[in-house]
Every structure is written in structure tokens, then in C-alpha cells.
Amino acid sequence: MSLRKLILIFAIVGVVSLATWMVRGYFLNPAESDPASCDLGMANAKKAGMMHGNGSPRAGEPPVIDKTQPTGSAPDGMVWIPAGEFSMGSDEEMFTDARPIHRVALNGFWMDKTEVTNAQFAKFVDATGYVTLAERKPRAEDFPGVPPEKLVAGSIVFTPPKDAVPLNDYMQWWAYKAGANWRRPEGPESDLKGRENHPVVHIAYDDAMAYAKWIGKRLPTEAEFEWAARGGLDRKKYVWGDDFKPEGKFKANSFQGNFPNKNTAEDGFAASAPVGSFEPNDFGLFDVAGNVWEWCSDWYRADYYQTFSSQAIAKNPTGPADSSDPNEPGVAKRVTKGGSFLCTDQYCSRYMPGGRGKEAADTGTNHLGFRLVRDGR
Ligand SMILES: [Ca+2]
What does pTM read for this prediction? Predict the structure, then answer.
């Protein structure tokens, strides 16, 4: 079963609590993680001889940045992300899947300065007639038992409750909405008017891949995204440093107030913001923390970081060969990075560069988008 199928069954038939699964990756509360599953992952890693103890060599050293500039001018809307070496991952207690911090070396590459916008995605759709997954009617053969008339295209929309709710019931704030897709982010009654420059959302992995193929770029690897997001800083908590609000200034679009019911939007945005609304990081990238989650090309495995050798620096890692999420066995997921406008230290802190997200490849939501990279030099 894929996540999308589960969500559809939940939404249409109302028999399974599926939104729970959907948000686990985004809002994983340490108190609610499944220790048995995590232990199993560790045991498997040990069995496979992948454990190495205290992190790889040089994991405690500052990043190395290759100052060599690329030849030729920058592709439109992209910045050069230098080749280099850094310490990837996080020691934050809640990020159980982001340890140990390990050393990674990467080639340089070009990266979109911003998330792909609605206007940019519209050009692609105009040119190709592409129809996103959320706009397609689910196939009856994929949803046995669901009456055909109830197979309705749609997507997952953040739908906050009026009052405070316990934070262990995700279904209180996520809902499958018929008719929600990139053109209508909150459902049939919404549109993109005035949001041309916002990140496109409700994009499934294959939708992002189709856009990338058309424009001649690719999704970043998880390591490329984290290296780029950190902007050359050394193991800082946020992509701009260790202080959440330096000089009282918001540096990213996140969630303020009481999650999920009361969004005070002190940073100026209750939902997505136009790309580039906040200052760029030191590599010139906007919104690599907050605003919307972004797809990476790697498969997600909760135990992947445990596989790095203590004897070597990982060079241009592209992720594991398959996917495994103990919180949702059997559902293949890709990594997402960067967090979203729904991230808050009260509950989800994965807008920190070391945090990892995950999503089933066929699932889009209204806080998940993407940006692309291109090999350089
Ligand atoms: Ca906000």
C-alpha cells in the first residue's frame, strides 16, 4: 500500500487513520517514536557490520570550501554551490535518524536560488500539458473496495482545528481534500491569484522529476541539499547560525503561536510566503529553511547514517539502495529537507539543516515543493 492509497481510503471510506502516517515524518515527536522499530533498525545495521561508533574522521572539523569558481555565467535563477567537505547530520536529540554526524565531500553544482514557483510550474504545464498526480483520478485497480464514484482526485491539506488539541492526534489538522492540487492549494474554492511567486505545492516526487526532465536539471541529493543549506557554516543549529531570531529578526517562514490551532504569523506569513521573502543564506539560497519542504532524490532509510564507514569520507553520496521507515513499514519514501511554514520548536524542528523529512513518492501536500540543481563546470 502506498501512502496515497491509505490517505484515499481514509478520506473516502473513513476506515483507517492515515493522516497519522502522513505527518509522522514531519512532526515526529520523540516521545511518540517507536523504540521497538528503531531498535530493529539498529540491530540490522549492526548485523550488516555497518556500525562505527563515534562518527567518521574529521566529523568535528570545520567545513572545507573550494573557492574555485565555475567557468561560464550562472544559469538563470541559479547560484554556484562550491565543492567542499562538511559534517552532515545532527546531534539534536529528537533527530534519531540524523546521527551520527559524518563527513561528506561533494562536487560543486548549480542550485536554484529559490523553490520552484507556481509561475514557473505553470510554464511547464502550459508547454507540456502535464497533469500532476493530485489532479489524476485514482485508478480503481489501485483501490479495491472503494466505490468507483468515490475515487476522486485530491491531495492533503493542512486543516487546523479551532481549538487546542493534543499533539498526538495528527488527524486533527490534516485532511484529504477532493479537488486540492497545485492550482487549488486549499481545495476547489482556492486559487493561485496573487500567489504566482509562491512555491508550487501538492507536487509528488514524479511531478518534480517530470519538471526536472523538461527543464534539464535534477533534484538535489540529500547531502547536496544539506551542504547547500548550511551555506558553509559549521554544524550550526539553523542555516543562519545558532540564534533562532538574531537581533529580533525572523530568518525563515515557520510557525508561531500554538500549534496547530493558533497561528499568530509573527513572521508575516500564516502559510507559504513568496519565495525570497527572507534573507538568503551565505551561499545565496533563499528559503532553505521553512516555507515548504523540498524533495531530494535519495531514498529514505531511518538507519542510513549508521552505514557510513569510520574509515572514509563519503564522496557524493546518493542515498541507500532502498527505503525503510520503521514508522510505516512497506511504504517506499524519498527524503525531504528544509521544513515548512508549519515547523515550530513546539513540535517540529526539522527546518534545522540537519533534520530529515520523508514522504511517499506519490504523495503531495500543501507544504511540500521542490527546487532543482544542475551539475556544473
Ligand atoms: Ca509563518
Answer: 0.87
